User: Fold histidine kinase from Lactococcus cremoris subsp. tructae.
Amino acid sequence: MQISDRETSAIMTGMKNVSNLSTMNFQDLNGFQEQKDFIRIRSQENQTIMSKGTENFLENRTFSFWKITISNGKLYDTVYKKDKGITYEIWLSLQDIFEEVGAVLASVFAILLLNYLIGLLLIRHYSKKINGPIEKLAFEASQDSGLLEVPEAPLEVRELAINFNELVKSLQEKIESEKEFASNLSHELRTPVMAISGYISLLKRRREEHPEIVEKSLNYLEQESERLKKLIEDFLTLSRKGQIDYQEEIFTTKSLLLEIKSSFEIDSSNKIEIEGDDNLHIKTNRFALREILNILMENAIKYSPKDSMVLIKYDKKEIQVIDRGIGISDNEKAKVFNRFYQVDKSRTNHTGNGIGLAIAQQYAQIINAEIYISDNLPVGTIFHLSFKKMSEK
Assistant:
């Protein structure tokens, strides 16, 4: 130990300066503390001189090895020196050092404990500041009270509340949309079912008295049955989104459009024209593309005057179905793709179930295309089927 080494050097220097050891006063030695430290000096003539208490110290010595000595339950640093035939034995108490170290350790421990307590208080304070708003949000969420109150701070909790509210709004809109869909579907199905049921009841009651109503009723039942069948087919198409087997094939756009034109010209008085490159080939799902164009053509003919022209234009980027009908207002252009939505009924006498364009949009997603609407000036509507990625041959 550096401290005991310094004390030993000071004590040895003092003892060597004494010419007659028998007259040595140990109390005058610098660094020596009588009753705490002990010295034994042996001369060549075996004369022994000891400081006060050394004899008792030696008698009560219980352990001594190298530089460590234990006596009376205390620890000592042992130093042996031999100079000019004189042996010096010095035992310096380490008690003061241990007490100083203990005091330092106690101070360090106290400081660490104080820092721990302060840190604990700070952590509790700031955790309460953060957890408080979180607990409040959790409580509000558990009460099923809708949107959460957005706190100003802390920023992380504020962003959490905002994101949660956005998610809730999205879910609420989806739920409302599903409720509206179910309600509209129920209404649409109920109408033809009730009509069919009514005519069946009429036939049962009056077919013998009024046979003339049989044919009329059967025709009506056939119409309503077809309407109900179409409605169910449309509903099943919507419900099986993502389940259509997507297989691509290569064909000319013109060949498909000619098939569609032929099928509509049978029952329609509208003139249908096609404009585009006869040799343009595409690679896509033919069934899905035909369903989209069938729906767009049905919509164009339904809302166009009789004998007016419906034009189908196409190139490698898109197919357009252009009519000269009543048109669609700007605020309705996006809504018409919603299930069961119908344009302002005051502007037309045509009725429908409002599912067709929703199905067309679904098929468009399958073939990686997009449907949007623009105005055909001065009158009419243009439906654009734009291909995001279209393979050409």
